[in-house]
Design a protein that fits this description.
243 residues; 15% strand; alpha/beta; 8-stranded mixed β-sheet; 33% helix
Length: 243
């Protein structure tokens, strides 16, 4: 059984379609033995989510609750093939963790080349730490190019538990296998996430475990195995940003 010390892609009621508060999520993460919980609300474009101003006021929230470190951030929409992000740049300095991803209501799926360009342009943006669920066959990607860019620009690719159990996404298991095989070949870490929208789903990596086991992916390349490794990853990224 793999060890997991963090889960940094989760949502609260602020995202509009999740059902726990920050305090409830933090308590649940502590009870599950995590060292770090990340809460990354959706940005504008997702129905019901919070206003951008929300991200500018997150300094009022304690970063330690129930004995765990709390990292507050955003899951930011990728809007086009240029990698335009759906959050005003002024708010990035307030985010402890920055995830960017494609969501169908905010992005028009293109060709493999166009979608790959969107992801790689996002990866090149020095404010981004993580690419969320790059596994949906409805939005085909050239994984060789994406993984190589992730290595070059120090960005984590996510293996997402929710995505693996989604009925609306296509070939997520097979695409996750491709990502993992390429990451193992290049010796780069991945991030696994629950994408929890309710407290009981925090640190639920049941579907992730199946895909990790299917390729014999090494534990040392799953960055969630060490809170210290994740903190160091974020520290390096903050040194490169332009704010």
């Amino acid at each position: 059984m793999r060890r997991y010390e963090l889960d940094v892609h989760t949502h609260t009621i602020a995202s509009g379609h999740a059902y726990g508060t920050i305090t409830e999520m933090a308590r649940a993460a502590s009870e599950k033995g995590l060292k770090i919980l990340g809460i990354t609300e959706h940005t504008t474009g997702i129905p019901g989510t919070c206003d951008e101003f929300y991200f500018g006021n997150m300094g009022v929230v304690p970063r330690n609750m129930f004995g765990i470190e709390l990292m507050l951030g955003a899951e930011i929409n990728i809007l086009d093939y240029k990698g335009t992000l759906g959050l005003n740049e002024r708010y990035f300095r307030h985010l402890d963790v920055r995830i960017a991803g494609i969501h169908s209501m905010c992005y028009e799926y293109g060709t493999m080349a166009e979608n790959t360009q969107a992801i790689i342009n996002t990866i090149k943006n020095p404010v981004i730490d993580i690419i969320s669920h790059p596994d949906d066959g409805n939005c085909p990607l050239d994984y060789d190019e994406v993984v190589q860019a992730a290595k070059e620009y120090h960005v984590l690719l996510e293996i997402n538990n929710n995505s693996l159990r989604s009925s609306s996404r296509k070939n997520t298991f097979e695409n996750s296998v491709k990502i993992l095989e390429l990451c193992r070949k290049l010796n780069i870490p991945v991030l696994v996430s629950s994408d929890a929208h309710y407290m009981t789903d925090i640190a639920n990596f049941e579907n992730v475990e199946k895909v990790l086991d299917s390729v014999g992916f090494p534990e040392e390349l799953v960055i969630n195995s060490s809170a210290d490794k994740f903190r160091e990853f974020i520290r390096v990224n903050r040194e490169r940003e332009r704010f």
